[in-house]
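Problem 12. The chain below contains 188 residues. Write out its predicted structure in token notation.
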Amino acid sequence: MTDAQPHRFGPLDFQLVLLRRMADHQPELVDDARRELGVSLAEMREANRRWQAMTRSPRSRGAAARYRSVLGEPESVARRRIGDLECEARLWPVPLWPTLRFEVLAGPDGTVWNEWLVRAPGAAGPVLSTVADLRAWSCTVDEAARAFAPARPREGSAPTRWQLELTVPGGGTCVAEFSWGLLQRLLP
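Solution.
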């Protein structure tokens, strides 16, 4: 990634942005993933800096156009109904997590409603039957919510973080925290 000329911000850089937020809770997993991608800590920070600059620029294009320019054409696009609202679900592969896809839900006017990692269509999800199965990077928000229903959404600690209060077998609850839709940790 390092060279004298600035390079186009692309899928590798975007994966580094995802990892940067996850590093707050899973630094060891992020370091392993970063090494697998062949990039330094400084390169990860630079990718995140560039992403933040793109999202905050007064000349910034909308989120939907930004994802398309960074990730290319979606692997798939499907109409989806959520309650009374119809949206478009756009999915992109994420090479670091081959069984996941980055999903952007966009409203009829193109406004991005949600953006996170989901299980790829047709990919087997994890077996989640006990709290011990809830390990970092093991499942998505939707998978945890289905496995430990009823689940109650809670406000996350940052814009790309979600929390779910899950009902655990035998009674009681626990709170799971997700970054970009991927489980990071259980809160005490």
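Discussion. The two ends are 39 Å apart (CA to CA). Students who got a different answer should revisit the alignment rule from Section 12.3.
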